[in-house]
Amino acid sequence: MTTVSKREVAHGVAWSSAANWGGQLISFGVYAGLARLLDPHVFGLVAIAFVYVSFMQVFVNQGFGTAIVQRKDLEPEHIDSAFWINMATAFSLCALSFALDDHIARLFHEPSLAPVIGWLSLSFPLLALSAMPGAILTREMNFRTLSIRGLGGTVVGGATGLAMACFGWGVWSLVGQQIMGTIFGVLFLWSTVPWRPGFRVSKRHLHDLYGFSLNLAASDLLWFFASKSDQTLVGYGFGSQGLGPYSLASRLNSVLQDGITTPLQTVALPAFSKLQSDQPGLERALRKFCEMSCFLSLPLFAGIIAVAPQAVPLLFGSKWIAAIPLVRILAVCAAIRCAFPFLNPLLLAKGRSGLQFLILVVQSATTVAACWIALRWNTEAVAWSMVISVGVISAFAILFPVRMLGINVPKLVRSFLFPSLSSIFMLVVVDLARTAAEKTLPAVANLVLCVTLGFLMYSVAAFVIRPDLVKEIWDMLGRKQPVLRRERPVEAGSPAVS
Q1: Rounded to two decimals, what is the model's pTM?
Q2: Looking at the 3D structure of the chain, how many domains does it have?
Q3: How far apart are alpha carbons 239 and 45 in whole angstroms?
């Protein structure tokens, strides 16, 4: 049985974290620049188009990439067959999008949406070209190459978008940003991965992959409804003007959420997969990943809630004032998601894609229903409906599926305690300080004061109460020590974190 080394996991997290945070910071800077150059209506229009593109991407991917990563016995025919099916599907969906773009624009009452959807659908074949090389690198835990690819795509796409916005291209600045970043990713992957597809499609090998990927593709479809229902319904109910501020609030929180959870999730799937037969090792790994995610994310979102009234106008301009309450509400939603983001990698690693599917059925139904009910009021009500539905589903996931997998729930929950309590206390103190200084300090000085106060409070609490976790994260980023500790000897013959 293949084992996964602690240093391998640490290096993967370090590379993914460094490049992901670098990419997220660049992406955030680009987004802030574009927000100052473009109107909220433009962002709302492209956000509607991205909802459609995200929906179609589920059918382009079909879960093949993850199936390649998870499969124990992989043959070249598996990769070749998946590649050609992905390509055929991508070109078909691209043609279909061009045929339906006018109908979709009429559905959302946005005539100018049609050409945006048409051009963005060109990303489908590009994504299909990236899928297999990306899966190969993930399977090999070569996160250095994947990280460089992501960072490079962010830089190229961002530079394109800003240049086009400066020259007055409006909505096409955001379209150009997306397409050019994707093109860079394709070219980089194909220049670094030696694999090339053979001209063969094997029914037997496709059958091997479809046994896993069909459940995964269905789960991805349900995840779309669970994660994009709010933006879809806001765009449908309030148009691009309503979706503009909502998409900015969602984007701001998702940048921060992805910056923390994506590197950990990327490493978690292959790590959990290699530990799938070692229950004690798998449980320790899960607790450690959850603890690190909470430790880094919860104080960050508590800070966002506290400083949003000063930060949003300073970063994006006064025309985005309407986004402030949405930023604060969706920060609560992002914090809940960051508390336990590893259920999907855990279920996939254990081969329980059917259970994952069942959970997503409940999650998507709950989210769609909650957002649809909230649509009768305003965008803030939709945001609160997301908080409620995500909170309910997270509690359900911890109480039932996690317990079914034999995970010790009380031990898992204890890993959330210090970050949660410290972040709530920090939020209360910083919000009081912000309110008190609002009338005496300029907005910039108030923001600097709040950020500094919050950072110092949480850092001191962490060094005093959890110095072990601080050292572990520091060593991980410095690639000196392993992420996971072995708490007891492993029996001979069992897979281990070595």
Answers
A1: 0.74
A2: 1
A3: 8
